[in-house]
Write a structure and sequence with these properties.
alpha+beta; binds glutathione; 4-stranded mixed beta sheet; about 210 residues
């Protein structure tokens, strides 16, 4: 049995839980981090010196970094389309996973912390506005790609949809004026038809 250590409202835990459900990996999740704590103990730090969630534990195999875990679960299952049969398709999935980390994650985190985890009187609206403008540029690139493709790497979802898909829920659920990106919205609605996405990603924001 695979154990995933991490709280359900963490976007990085959501990537892993959604992938596990899609590829049919049996996993048991344990609340760690945030209000639950437990990620600063010597035992936890021995597994993940970064003190972050999620961590995957499978016997004596330990893995941290959510996107490494997503790739591990997809490859271990060998299930297409999540782990694509063609190396070129997997390369494109990796490309979009990296794009999320390098071009969106910091801006999405600034918006999320600003609007969801900061009280209104303490919000830095200028910083939030700047992050929304930067994130909008990156989402416009995703939108343009989705004008030509149903999902990030083709006609079916793959691991390339996972990080962006988790962030897309937050993008559409947070209270601010978004630019209209119709392909992005259509793709998000298609993801929302999937039970694993609804179950693990479309959670109330907290
Ligand atoms: N690059 C890491 C980042 C992990 C990370 O920052 N996790 C956050 C939650 S989203 C965390 O552990 N925060 C501290 C906590 O939950 O106590 C990954 O992708 O796994």
């Amino acid at each position: 049995m695979i154990r995933i250590l991490g709280r359900a409202n963490s976007i990085n835990v959501q990537k892993v839980m959604w992938t596990a459900a899609e590829v049919g990996s049996e996993v048991e999740r344990q609340d760690v981090g945030g209000a639950f704590g437990g990620n600063d103990t010597p035992e936890y730090l021995a597994m993940n010196p970064n003190g972050r969630v999620p961590v995957l534990v499978e016997g004596d195999f330990v893995l941290w970094e959510s996107q490494a875990i997503v790739r591990y679960l997809a490859e271990k299952s060998g299930k297409a389309p999540w782990w694509a049969a063609k190396i070129e398709d997997r390369a494109h999935a990796n490309q979009w996973m990296d794009f999320y980390i390098n071009s969106l994650h910091a801006h999405m985190t600034a918006i999320f912390w600003g609007l969801i985890r900061t009280t209104p009187e303490k919000r830095d609206m200028a910083a939030i506005g700047k992050a929304i403008a930067e994130a909008s540029k990156a989402w416009a690139i995703v939108d343009a790609h989705l004008a030509r493709s149903s999902f990030m790497t083709g006609q079916e979802p793959s691991m390339g949809d996972v990080p962006l898909g988790c962030a897309a829920h937050r993008w559409h659920a947070m209270p601010f004026d978004r630019p209209e990106l119709k392909n992005l919205r259509r793709w998000h609605e298609a993801l929302a038809e999937r039970k694993p996405y609804r179950q693990h990603v479309m959670l109330p924001l907290s």
